[in-house]
Write a structure and sequence with these properties.
alpha+beta, Immunoglobulin-like, Purple Acid Phosphatase, chain A, domain 2, 2 domains, 6-stranded mixed β-sheet, 21 strands, 21% helix, binds fe (ii) ion
């Protein structure tokens, strides 16, 4: 009896600190697909407590996820596995146009005892009673594909839901958020409350999402954290990707007023940022891949015309001379909350068509031997159709 009491005391002595520290862990947001290419993908999610996380990947198939041990992928930094509440796992070495299933795990880091880590519980996605989510890598050889564009949602989840509720893997290869998805970013959790939780519920677990930053996402005290949630393929908010017969140039138009405007509290440096971006555009449009792709589509939040504000003028001054000689087939913008289609030749300063989408309509676009654009309202009714034929 004495020994039993001693054992119980010892157990409680060693176990209590652990149980006091361990809160249990939950996956709070996500997962969603980012930074997808032909050979890589990044899966992002968050947890309510610190954790070390990993991803298990399986080829497409109807076999159980438990059929065999699946390879694990971690996020590491300078040789260590990363601990935190935001989890971003990049998987490389994938094959183009190939479907993969995945499962996520987060092992709670409950505390530290000297150099030793005290692990708590593990949270994971359910592959037992639910089908594991799956994504398909991009593929330049795909003959036809469809994508969806929304912009200027400003945190209106109901609008987002109305415009994306019918998005399925079968009818949509990728979705583009073309800026101002939220009005101000003061806390990172607003990314999820404002639009991403809805996006995850509707499609983003399985359908790749590409983000073009709007001027509103440059605002608020958490604005510098946005990139962690939407990492572009080259370390920037401006980046390029290729899928099927289209090359996408995603640009970051920055803020709309002069950098010195009182609204920016002496923090804005968008003029030099757009200079830096101009140099990048010049490099990309000179590549054989850009030039040889059947269609070139530019995604940019602020249109390069229609306003005398500084942002518009700076974009027009810096980007248009390059884009005008780059054989662009279509530019998609938002920002004005008003639909407008400026056909090639209508604006003497722009040598390609520009479609400005409204904040309460979406674009359903199919690319094959031509670009077929349908602008639709929240009930799904087509308001305008634009067909852009290939040049070759
Ligand atoms: Fe805007």
């Amino acid at each position: 009896m004495k020994n039993l009491m001693k054992t119980t005391w010892l157990l409680s002595f060693f176990c209590c600190p652990f149980f006091l520290l361990s809160q249990g862990i939950q996956i709070t947001n996500g997962p969603y697909i980012q930074r997808i290419g032909e050979d890589e993908a990044t899966i992002i999610w968050t947890t309510d407590n610190d954790a070390v996380s990993w991803l298990e990947l399986a080829p497409a198939g109807n076999d159980s996820f438990y059929a065999t041990e699946r390879p694990r992928y971690y996020n590491t930094s300078h040789g260590n596995r990363v601990i935190g509440k935001l989890h971003r796992i990049t998987v490389k070495g994938l094959s183009p146009g190939t479907e993969y299933r995945y499962r996520i795990f987060s092992k709670e880091v409950a505390g530290y005892a000297g150099h030793q880590i005290l692990f708590g519980s593990i949270a994971s996605s359910n592959v037992y009673s639910s089908k594991p989510p799956a994504f398909t890598t991009l593929d330049r050889n795909k003959k036809a594909f469809s994508f969806r564009v929304v912009n200027d949602i400003h945190g209106k989840n109901d609008n987002l839901r109305a415009m994306l509720s019918d998005v399925k893997k079968e009818n949509t290869d990728l979705v583009i958020f073309n800026g101002d998805m939220i009005s101000t970013l003061n806390e990172e959790k607003e990314i999820f409350a404002g639009f991403m939780d809805t996006a995850v519920e509707l499609f983003a677990k399985e359908i790749p999402l590409f983000y073009a930053r709007g001027n509103h996402e440059t605002r608020g005290k958490a604005n510098t954290g946005l990139y962690d949630y939407f990492p572009g393929s080259n370390g920037n908010f401006y980046y390029a990707f290729r899928h099927g017969p289209a090359f996408f140039l995603v640009l970051d138009s920055g803020e709309d007023k002069p950098d010195s405007d009182i609204e920016y509290s002496e923090l804005a440096q968008f003029d030099p940022y757009r200079d830096q971006q101009r140099e990048w555009i010049e490099t990309v449009i000179a590549t054989p891949e850009f030039q040889s792709t059947p269609f070139r589509i530019v995604i940019m939040h602020i249109p390069p015309t229609g306003s005398t504000w500084h942002g518009t003028r700076d974009i027009a001054r810096k980007f248009l001379p390059l884009l005008n000689k780059a054989n662009i087939d279509l530019m998609l913008c938002g920002h004005t909350h008003n639909y407008q289609f400026i056909d090639k030749g209508e604006d003497q300063h722009i040598l390609f068509p520009v479609l400005i989408n409204d904040d309460e309509t979406y674009l359903d676009i199919k690319v094959d031997s031509r670009i077929d654009v349908r602008q639709k309202d929240m009930s799904g009714k087509t308001l305008h159709t634009h067909i852009i034929n290939g040049k070759k």
